[in-house]
Amino acid sequence: MSTHLSPAQTAQALPYPALARHIEALLQDPTVKVPARMVLPLAGGGSYFVMPATDATLAISKLITFIPDNASRQLPSIQGDVVVFDAATGQRLCILDGPTVTARRTAAVSLLAAQKLACRTDGPLLIVGAGVQGHSHAEAFAAGLGVREVWVASRSAASADALVRHCHGLGLRAQRVEDANAVLAECPLVVSTTSAQEVALRTMPRADAFVAAVGAFTPRMVEWDAAVCQRLAQEGTLVVDTRDADHEAGDLLQAGIDVPTVPTLGDVIAGSATWADYATQRRSGPVFFKSCGWAGWDLAAARCASSGLGLRLDLQTPGV
Questions:
Q1: What residues contact residue 73 under an 8 Å CB cut-off, 6+ apart?
Q2: How far apart are the C-alpha atoms of 120 and 27, rounded to whole Å?
Q3: Which of 3, 173, 224, 266 could form a disulfide with 94 if both were Cys (CB 3.0 to 4.6 A apart)?
Q4: What is the pLDDT at residue 310?
């Protein structure tokens, strides 16, 4: 019998600093194989994602739906599961809660990028978009960077206030701000986690800023103004999460940027020739990290959960 983790149990199995370390290790593992994810349109306007990945010990598939307007139904926009198998025996080891994995591994990827690329990690951290990813990024940057102050901007004051309260519960100083563009100059850390249905950010970040742009993960989605992205390409440092961003990074693609020439987080971790060549030409402007998502991050989460729970040692454990 395999272990089926609840959302709370999945979160407990994926502490952000440990998850970031597993992501870094995965990026250096030559046994990792991640085929292109399959995205099927749904009749109601949503999408169904099938995301497999494997390494020398585990095989996983994330099966999730994304329904952008589910908030109007009082339902989460992302639903589904991550199914984890033993690569040697084919036995199912566990089922992780898909939305929890998505939230935490995405924030952990941003955390790892910030650990490697941010000039300043003291904050304040500006979070634009107060949904699930806003919450997870506040948690991750507090746990992994030591951020103590968070500013929240959202089209919904109620959502922003809820995230502010959540930050207070984490022991952080937090406040709602009315206009994200008006305060970008005051924030060395910025995370954009909007629904990415329209441009939300039209102002250039400060020169020493680290930006994690998370919301747009298809070519048609966008959070950042094209002119700002073009300036970032000219004056700052662009990094994408994986080569899948070449055809998914809506912000950069809509700005006409040649995304295949942009180094990946893996290049940064490995110190590859691509990163070395790019780094020699780095300018003094902001670092802009574009995150689109990848099943490898879910595999890293499976590794983290498997390691922490000892699932490979006790396949018969029905729960935790």
A1: none
A2: 24
A3: 3
A4: 65
